Amino acid sequence: MEFLSEYGLFVLKAVTIVIAILVVIGGIVAIGSRNKRSQHEGELNIKKINEELEEHKEQLEESVLTRDAVKAKEKEKKKEDKEKAKAEKKRLKGLKDGMAAPETQRRVYVLDFDGDIQASQVEHLRHEVTAVLTMAGGDDEVVVRLESGGGMVHGYGLGASQLKRIRDRGIPLTVCIDKVAASGGYMMASIANRIVAAPFAIVGSIGVVAQLPNFHRLLKKHDVDYELFTAGKYKRTVTMFGENTDEARQKFQTDLEDTHGLFKSHVKQFRPRIDIDEVATGDIWYGQEALDQRLIDEVGTSDDYLMAACERADVYQVRYEFRKTLQEKLGVSVERGVEGAFSRILTLLSRQQQNKG
User: Fold this and answer.
1) For residue 196, which of 14, 151, 304, 340 sits 20 to 30 Å off, Cα-Cα?
2) Is the Cβ–Cβ distance between 263 and 189 less than 8 Å?
3) Any idea which of 66-75, 98-107, 201-210, 281-290 has the lowest mean pLDDT?
4) Is 148 a catalytic residue?
């Protein structure tokens, strides 16, 4: 029994070493890929949501309805398709003869933004917005399904600027929030002509936060000097390793207040009916509360909004994706291998604890 226990510990140590090596390799591969990637190494993936909903409906009908009912539905659909084709043929003939005006079908373009601390998906968003603007007109609509708890000011500021490009072209912009649009996420959402949030979606957090540890006393205790050289009085204010002065703290706080002021002005510009002093406290609100505060315009899910949109327009999901290089594919494989190995280690440790018990 003791031999098995020692053998198990040996295996765990070996696996840990292998994981560490894989993590290093995966990191190097990922960094190398990012450095070599060109901003044009990607492609648009377009999916018509109307067709997807229709397919789901047909699959459900085949399972739920009787065979005769399904046949009747299919017959009815063929008849409708035939009538549509005939009407389209007639319209095209009228265009050719100069007797009819071109018919424009309203379109809704759906973009997805899932933000992290750095708002790194902005790189995808800028390509998607640019592509949509080559086609969309004032009768169309852009819907952004936005999920983000916020992050770096400059990243989310650029994200908001990308959405503003849509409004500047006179194209209606709707933002749907199913889970959270806080801080930088709400900075982006506030650009929209209309904001729709789910009943328990978190909205708001109009504030600015910054925090950092300070190791000055620890370094001083161990006789370690930290020297910082700058040119310009405010090139560096508070630091992690030096002794922070009251003046430095005050300057840092002033910078935060200035950023908060810009945030408030931004929200007030696009949502003038908001009592900005009431909501710009850094607090958050859920669905109906956010509606009461005029942070949003409607309580509902993106699913319901898009289903309704499919009844009145052609709805297209537009997604820009970078093509994965061989290095990146290898990096993903390494990452999955690490996750699997780590999961197995936790399972082994758990079993070992149970056996000891």
Assistant:
1) 151
2) no
3) 98-107
4) no
